[in-house]
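step: validate -> pass
step: tokenize input -> pass
step: predict -> running
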Amino acid sequence: MKTLTIIVPCYNEEAVITESYRRTKQVIQQLPNQTEIIYINDGSQDNTRLLLNEIAAQDPQVKVLHFSRNFGHQPAVTAGIHHCTTDLAIIIDADMQDPPELIPDLLELQEQEQANVVYCVRKSRDGESFFKLLSAKLFYRVMNSMSEVSFPLDTGDFRLIDRKVMDEFDRLKERGKYIRGLISWLGFKQVPFYYEREARIAGETKYPLSKMFKFASNALLYFSKKPLKLAMSMGFTAVVVGIILAIWFILGKIYGFTNADSGWTSIIIAVIFFGGVQLITVGVLGQYIGILFDEIKARPEYVIEEKKGIEELKELRSQVERFV
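step: predict -> pass
step: emit ->
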């Protein structure tokens, strides 16, 4: 029987963490698999840290990683995968929008299909605004059109991955990870699981508009070079427009069908158009240069301040494999 780890990133989840643990524990007690839970406290400012320590102290199946500050959702999930030593892992958020009661169904589908990845596709998303639903739908479709890799639509990080995928994921060294995209990029056999996404049981979303925009821009820039091609196309279009305008004004001056001297409106429009194209192009280049700058610095994706119940089995295994 395959062993299982449930990876749960947490940030300011004091309102839901106790109920989240209760429901998840209730599920894993019914599983035949040897199972553990890894909670990653992503620098929470509330009582999440205290509650997780209390849970870990009374339950040997619970492991906790405390970050030194808030590094973000994707680094938290990455840390969970890095510290996973089991055959399978399921990534799930603490807010219960992705019900832990679906875990047995994911395991059953993985076993039936002998899949390396079971990714969860949302048929509906309760408790979310029209703007959030529309922006999410547009995001996934824009990502698919801009990326060289095809991504499943309407999916999040809620998924099951096996040991082979985790080992390959550990080899990926970029720091600005877009995890669901990277797992798709890895390939292997991936199958969908359709479900109804529930509303948060308590608390507030940890993805306001600013974080959503940053997440979307990172995902796009890390996974596609098409923004650079788009900037180049806009530059080429601007040059063509400029040549056409120049020819038009010259011919108009010669043949008298336009007054080039007093055409200040056309000049202003042309200046604004070319200036906008240049600023967009420079901005896109700046974003890619910023990514290169972050990667060259080679800072760690996260810093762990404290571990609860985590044995360094994975590090030991890696050392053994290097000597074998």
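step: describe -> The mean pLDDT is 77.
step: cleanup -> pass
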